[in-house]
Design brief:
heterodimer; A: MetI-like fold; about 0% strand; B: mainly alpha
């Protein structure tokens, strides 16, 4: 529809609220963090311009690189944990099967729960003394395998990643299932007529046909797990001895515990570009448009 | 009785090779699916069951049903965690943020989808870009901004980030839905003398009902579960939302598992019920939100 004279005002009235609140509270903070990242500032006293000093300090801090490494670990664990499990279960569910609805309902359930609830529940599960996992191990006589899962630097990251995987498998499961059910029946019928076994059909027809969806899921999985914060904040707070520290948590601690607002902003800027570039690269490699 | 006999005799007969193979395969498939489901749901059931046990019983009988239903944990959790206040705060902020986001977003989507104007595509891309912003990169500047505006620790503090960061996905879903309507809808309405907002309110909005349901559910669940902004922007215990309150409550209760489980169970139940009743809409909304986000 074309607009004339008077309705230009309507246009402004219609778009202004969204534009204002989005610009002020989503875009402006990003720009502000660029500005603060050049400052030394404790949040209260005068700011002092220090150029790139924050970034220099940042890149020299081994704890920062430790958090980047952990973050990448979470991303890799998520991609290689969530996607294959979800795809496998979705393939199993994609047939005439009794109880499909129940399996789906249960499969998606963790996705609707809040990360805080999930983190606290799994903290109890991992608990050394009375946690579910250690109790099960003791019950089957494998006492020696019982661990302080979240308190031991050897296991903490693995334990956290298992929870992350558990939380989101259902999301990809449903995405894959929807894609599988969109494959036209004739394709499958034709394959069956040609006498192709299910194994062959799955690899040669089914998976290639939903490959686009798999790529979308991988990108989603990367950008989602790159943002992990709540879960680790609640479960381990980055500990023990920084073994589960991730970028957002490092930033949070530097800013709000050590009161280095300028330095924290520099980390924010880094996270911003790191996410954009990583997702950009992945999309490029997997052949997708950026936005 | 008769049928059981019949069945046994039937299965006793030698099955053709292919059918037997099929049933082995089906059994395996069911076994895998059941294991997957148990892993998915047991942690939650484990917690709910154990929330009704006394500390003593939990230590010795973790996997059985509670011998007697102990509700002390619930009383303790409700009192100490201030769950009533947390629920009230969460409901208030979620409802308000969801309504405002969807209203403001729908209005903007209407213009972006149905009206021709200069810079329309640029403006649309500008909004959609928001889906790429990692929210944690904005925690620090958001804190400073709201502090400067004197909006920290206010009952409506969280409205600003919640609306701003959920507008992109809301606009994305609604715009693509509204674009699909046939062109002549507005034209006939204009001939009937309808103003532009009238068209929005009485024609476009009702027609967008399925997409509106999606974005309402999506916004509500995102807001209900949100933790990071609440953590950074709210200090006052009286204003805390459910996730924030639970996290700090669990911090104090490292010893009393029962109360912790009771608190978690209570906070989980409403969302699980909500999910069981609106499963289709929630699943559609959250997968659409994820795929497009």
């Amino acid at each position: 529809m074309q607009l004339t004279g008077k309705s230009k005002a309507a246009l402004i009235i219609g778009l202004l609220p969204a534009f204002l609140i989005y610009t002020v509270f989503a875009i402006y903070p990003i720009i502000q963090s660029f500005y603060y990242s050049f400052m030394e500032w404790d949040g209260f006293s005068e700011m002092e311009f220090i150029g790139l000093q924050n970034f220099e300090n940042l890149f020299q801090d081994p704890l920062f690189w430790n958090s980047v490494g952990n973050n990448i670990f979470v991303v890799i664990a998520s991609v290689f944990g969530q996607i294959p499990i979800a795809l496998f279960i979705a393939l199993l569910l994609n047939r005439k099967i009794k109880g499909l609805k129940i399996f789906r309902t249960i499969g998606f359930l963790p996705v609707v729960l809040s990360t805080v609830v999930i983190s606290l529940t799994w903290s109890l599960i991992y608990n050394t003394k009375d946690g579910m996992i250690n109790e099960i191990l003791r019950a089957v006589g494998l006492d020696f395998l019982a661990q302080n899962w979240l308190g031991d630097t050897k296991w903490s990251m693995v334990a956290v990643c298992i929870t992350v995987i558990w939380q989101f498998v259902g999301l990809y499961l449903i995405i894959f299932l929807a894609a599988l059910q969109n494959i036209p029946e004739e394709v499958m019928e034709a394959a069956k007529m040609d006498g192709a076994s299910e194994w062959v059909t799955t690899w040669k027809i089914t998976i290639p046909m939903i490959w686009d969806t798999v790529i979308v899921a991988i990108i989603l999985c990367i950008s989602g797990s790159l943002r992990t914060f709540d879960l680790i904040y609640v479960m381990t707070h980055g500990g023990p001895s920084h073994s589960t520290d991730v970028m957002a948590l490092y930033m949070f601690n530097e800013t709000f515990s050590n009161l280095q607002y300028g330095y924290g902003s520099a980390v924010s800027v880094f996270i911003f570009f790191f996410s954009l570039i990583l997702i950009g690269i992945v999309k490029k490699v997997l052949g997708q448009k950026f936005i | 009785m008769e049928t059981t006999i019949k069945k046994t005799t039937q299965s006793a007969l030698p099955l053709p090779q292919s059918t037997r193979k099929l049933s082995v395969k089906n059994t395996l498939i069911y076994a895998v699916l059941i294991i997957f489901s148990v892993i998915n749901v047991y942690p939650i059931i484990w917690m709910i069951i154990n929330s009704f046990k006394s500390e003593k019983e939990f230590a010795v009988n973790q996997f059985g049903l509670p011998r007697t239903l102990v509700i002390d944990n619930y009383i303790e959790a409700w009192g100490t965690a201030n769950l009533g206040v947390l629920f009230k705060n969460s409901i208030f902020i979620c409802l308000l943020a969801t309504i405002l986001t969807v209203l403001i977003g729908a209005l903007a989507s209407y213009f972006l989808a149905r009206i021709e104007f200069k810079f329309k595509n640029a403006l649309y891309t500008f909004f959609i870009f928001g889906m790429l912003i990692p929210i944690h990169a904005t925690l620090v500047p958001m804190f400073i901004l709201l502090k400067n505006l004197g909006l920290l620790n206010n009952p409506i503090t969280l409205l600003f980030p919640y609306i701003a960061f959920h507008l992109p996905i809301t606009i994305f879903i609604l715009t693509s839905f509204m674009k699909a309507f046939p062109k002549d809808i507005e034209e006939s309405a204009i001939i009937d003398g309808c103003g532009i907002f009238r068209i929005f309110w009485s024609i476009i909005l009702p027609m967008s009902r399925p997409a509106l349901a999606t974005v309402i559910i999506l916004n509500f669940i995102y807001n209900w579960n949100e933790f990071s902004f609440a953590l950074v922007l709210l200090n006052d215990p009286a204003l805390q939302t459910l996730p924030l309150g639970l996290a700090s409550f669990a911090g104090q209760f490292t010893v009393n598992y029962g109360a912790q489980m009771a608190g978690l169970t209570m906070s989980m139940i409403p969302i699980i019920i909500f999910y069981l009743f609106l499963e289709k809409e929630i699943v559609n909304g959250m997968t659409a939100g994820a795929v497009k986000g």
